[in-house]
Design brief:
alpha+beta; five-stranded mixed beta sheet; three-stranded antiparallel beta sheet; 17 helices
């Protein structure tokens, strides 16, 4: 066989292979489209269409007199299906000018010409989910449903409104950290977190179709499940007292240049919290509600703890208000540390009652050390008997357990008893300290603080 014959034979083989390959493709296309068509169309429909979760409206949070402290406000993305079957070119051209004018007048973010150009370009690109306006409010959406073209309804005009809710607090910073927040990732803070299972409601579901770019468009097939809105909660907060407390705290912090502070107003007989303010100085020297110091920040209670120390001694019969104590010229040595009074030179020999009235560090610590120096466990047990080692259990996440260590525990030393007696080497939140004092004011009856 000569060279020409070999070349011709190879060419015929390649040609035959290409013909067979083309025939195989044709057969496969025929099989997919006609024989297996229904199967693949159903599969494609399943892949691109599915039931998706619909979030419910969150419940409201009210003040004591029924004013809104937190509410969910609807917010909408306005979109348009440019190739819906009923939207013909004739209908689109007949309404585009007037629709563009109304959109420009309602939103004021673009001119009539810009709206017309954007809508016309989206129509030319055959967009199924064109964004017309982000973050439209409920009133605006109600208005645009009466606009030219849009008044024809969703299926004839292609109008799609996608609703979501955003959380707002009408009273701004007033009790903001107590009322709390709902963050973008659905994390909750404050009462929003403590009562989340009641506030959040029950999710629903709706059929949606996935479009290009990962965008989902709702499909109204009548078989979805509507979400159930969350329950409302009514707080004990008196918004008028809250305003006064917040302003008073802010004025004092500003006056003294303090970094932060908190104030709590509790109803003695019931434990209902009527006002709570937590203010932190911001970079511009204004004060904002940034952290919930009242509930979640534990610090050494200092002299406020002296009342608890004396109550334990009096109840145990080891200290009497009429007992006398020498304040030692305002300085007493306990092991390797010196206890000092704020008053230079001390107060001389005074009664325990007077030591309490003057908030004498040396007087109180000497009285407690004399009574419990040989049995400090009994002193700690007395404090625990009044619940000072337990959190209040208030329904706001983040409340720490009080620090109140005893003999044998890590951190206990020879100076722990006198220092604990005047409010150091222990930690309580402001709310925990207030709960103890409220029990004293309530004739010894301890009530749990509550906000709702």
């Amino acid at each position: 066989m000569n060279d020409n014959s070999q070349l011709k034979a190879r060419t015929n083989i390649v040609y035959l292979a290409m013909v067979l390959f083309a025939l195989a493709i044709a057969v496969k296309l025929f099989t997919i489209q006609l024989v297996e068509g229904d199967k693949w169309r159903a599969k494609a429909e399943t892949v691109s269409t599915t039931y998706r979760t619909v979030q419910p409206d969150r419940g409201h949070i009210y003040s004591e007199d029924g004013r809104l402290l937190a509410t969910s406000v609807p917010e909408y993305d306005v979109r348009m299906d440019m190739v819906t079957d009923a939207l013909t070119d004739e209908v689109f051209r007949a309404n585009i000018d007037s629709l563009s004018w109304h959109l420009a007048d309602l939103f004021g973010d673009r001119t009539q010409a810009e709206y017309k150009r954007d809508l016309s370009d989206a129509r030319a690109r055959k967009e199924r989910y064109h964004m017309v306006k982000r973050k439209a409010d409920h009133t605006q959406v109600q208005q645009l449903r009466s606009f030219p073209l849009f008044h024809l309804g969703r299926f004839k005009s292609g109008l799609v409104t996608e609703k979501r809710t955003v959380r707002v607090r009408p009273f701004g910073r007033l009790a903001a950290r107590t009322v709390g927040y709902v963050l973008r990732d659905s994390t909750t803070i404050g009462l929003e977190a403590g009562y989340d299972k009641w506030l959040k409601g029950t999710t629903g579901r709706r059929l949606e179709r996935r479009l290009s770019g990962g965008v989902w468009m709702p499909i109204d097939d009548g078989e979805g499940v509507d979400p159930v809105p969350g329950s409302d909660i009514h707080t004990t907060i008196d918004i008028n007292l809250q305003d006064v407390a917040d302003a008073a705290l802010g004025a004092q912090l500003q006056k003294h240049g303090a970094q932060y502070g908190c104030v709590i107003v509790m109803e003695v007989a019931t434990g209902a919290i009527k006002a709570v303010s937590n203010l932190t100085r911001a970079g511009d020297s204004t004060y904002v509600e940034a952290l919930n110091y009242a509930v979640s920040e534990a610090t050494e209670p200092g002299s406020t703890f002296k009342l608890a120390s004396l109550m334990v001694g009096i109840e145990d019969g080891l200290i009497k208000p009429s007992d006398t104590v020498d304040t030692k010229k305002g300085q007493v040595r306990f092991h390797d540390r010196t206890m000092k009074d704020s008053h230079e030179g001390g107060y001389g020999r005074i009664t325990v009652q007077r030591a309490f009235e003057l908030s004498s560090n040396t007087g109180i610590s000497l009285a407690v050390t004399k009574a419990y120096g040989k049995d400090p466990k009994r002193f700690i047990a007395g404090l625990q008997r009044m619940g000072l080692h337990q959190p209040t259990g208030v329904m706001i996440p983040g409340e720490p357990v009080p620090t109140l260590r005893g003999p044998g525990e890590k951190g206990w030393s020879g100076v722990s008893l006198p220092w604990i007696s005047i409010g150091y080497e222990s930690q309580l939140t402001s709310l925990q300290t207030l709960t103890f004092y409220n029990a004293v004011a309530n004739d010894g009856r301890l009530v749990q603080p509550h906000f709702v």
